[in-house]
Write a structure and sequence with these properties.
The chain has 255 residues and is of the alpha/beta class. It folds into 2 domains: 67 residues, no CATH class; 165 residues, P-loop containing nucleotide triphosphate hydrolases (Rossmann fold, 3-Layer(aba) Sandwich). It is 60% helix and 11% strand. A 5-stranded parallel beta sheet has the order 2-3-4-1-5. The longest helix is centred in the N-terminal third of the chain and has 28 residues. 27% of the residues are buried. Bound molecules: adenosine-5'-diphosphate and magnesium ion (MG). Magnesium ion binds next to α6 and β3.
């Protein structure tokens, strides 16, 4: 490479920096080499460079949105074994994974005993939503109540609820595992009614919604929350034994 070429590359890098084309800035020489090897025409070269930049931005967007969602772990819809869950209709799962219900602000509730894949599916759908460009936030119910209670104490409840309202999809995991008091139910009600008919929520629970009144301290709040969650909602009941226990038994038989 001549001194002049080096100087030109440096200028190009500076320009890419000013235009915030980070992919081009960081990979200028490699991309130039690839373009030369492929003997690209000027049009093809632009197409190639723009594509690389767009691809990289998409990867960054997915990475950042996934971090912001605070998933407790990263499982995917692809790694969910539908055959292991005969009670679950594959067609329903395919339908849900198209995520069209986010556009109509509908909800999904997964109900079933521990270990049957409720959280796995909620995270899988959350990640699919992110791939499609939606924003997602995951909470356990206990976590969410703690966040809302703290906001109330700090006098920032309205701000917090507005913040949570921005997420196209909210996931509330393990609702019903731990009972909560009337004040917590009221906080949850405020959030759910704000999101009602404009944003989607996934809830996972080990109890059917009809029993939520028992854990909600306040049956009136429970009814009001249920009313809004269930109005436009796909309930998915998963029965059967814990996947891990079953897989564990299989492993033991093999060894
Ligand atoms: P739940 O939330 O219903 O208690 P989880 O989603 O936490 O259950 O599932 C427990 C474990 O079993 C997780 O590691 C999950 O990935 C796995 N698992 C459950 N069901 C399936 C399935 N059908 N296919 C693949 N993995 C599964
Ligand atoms: Mg779970």
């Amino acid at each position: 490479m001549t001194e002049l070429m080096r100087e030109t590359d440096k200028q190009l890098k500076d320009m890419a920096e000013r235009l915030r084309l980070c992919m081009l800035r960081d990979n200028m020489s490699e991309l130039m080499n690839m373009a030369t090897e492929r003997r690209l025409s000027p049009r093809e070269l632009l197409m190639f460079l723009f594509n690389k930049e767009i691809e990289q931005r998409e990867v960054n967007r997915i990475r950042l949105t996934t971090m912001g969602a605070h998933f407790p772990r990263l499982c995917s819809l692809e790694s969910f074994d539908v055959n292991a869950q005969p009670a679950l209709e594959p067609g329903l799962l395919r339908e849900l994974s198209r995520m069209e219900w986010l556009e109509t602000a509908e909800n999904v509730i997964f109900v079933g005993p521990p270990g049957v894949g409720k959280t796995h599916l909620a995270i899988g759908l959350g990640r699919r939503a992110i791939e499609l460009g939606y924003s997602v936030r995951f909470f356990t119910a206990a976590n969410l109540i703690a966040v809302l209670s703290k906001a109330k104490q700090d006098g920032s409840l309205v701000h917090k609820i507005n913040q949570l309202q921005k997420f196209k999809l909210l996931i509330i995991d393990e609702l019903g595992y731990l009972p909560f008091d009337a004040e917590s139910a009221a906080l949850l009600f405020q959030l759910i009614s704000k999101r009602y008919e404009s944003r989607s929520t996934i809830v996972t629970s080990n109890r059917p919604p009809s029993e939520w009144g028992l854990v909600f301290g306040d049956p009136t709040a429970a009814t009001a929350i249920l009313d809004r969650l269930l109005h436009h909602c796909t309930p998915v009941v998963i029965q059967g034994d814990s996947y891990r226990l079953r897989e564990g038994v299989k492993q033991q038989k093999i060894t």
